[in-house]
Specification:
The protein has 152 residues and is an alpha+beta fold. It has 2 domains: 41 residues, Winged helix-like DNA-binding domain superfamily/Winged helix DNA-binding domain (Arc Repressor Mutant, subunit A); 78 residues, Alpha-Beta Plaits, CATH 3.30.70. The chain is built from 5 helices and 4 strands; from the N terminus they run αααβαββαβ. Helix 2 crosses helix 3. The longest helix is centred in the first third of the chain and has 13 residues. The radius of gyration is 20 Å and the shape is elongated. The termini are close together. The model has no long low-confidence stretch (mean pLDDT 91). Pfam families: AsnC_trans_reg, HTH_AsnC-type. This is Lrp/AsnC family transcriptional regulator. One of its GO terms (biological process) is response to amino acid. GO terms for molecular function: sequence-specific DNA binding.
Length: 152
Amino acid sequence: MFLPHMDETDQEIIRLLHDNGRMSYAKIGEQLNLSRVAIQKRVDAMLENGIIENFTVRLNSTKLGKYISAFFEVEVEPRFVEQAGNLLSEEPEVISIYQMTGPSTLHMHALLKDEDALEHFLFKKIYVLEGIVNVNTHMVIKRFKQGTGLEL
């Protein structure tokens, strides 16, 4: 797939970094027959232009003591959506939160230690917020795929 604001070399750099975010610019350069400096300039330009937002690492939540992965559909009175979204986004358990269309105003993913932590999160951090109408909770049983971002 060719994107108009990126040439094939940029796209290949992203593919390589997507597969191995720790790959050095020198190693990428070897594979693409370019210098380390040329790769660095291209990556810097993609960062500056917002094509690459950041570099991250994916952690295994269960090995870090977070055994419950749950998704929440949080229905909020319209006038409190912004406030509730901002407050919930500050909670360390929250991995992602989005405002959605339809009756469920906020869609949120959180990682929690256990059932007690889930109960505490629901009743002490969500339901206490002004404007919360309803919360549907869905616990993950099995993960088939977890994305790391847009693939080219």
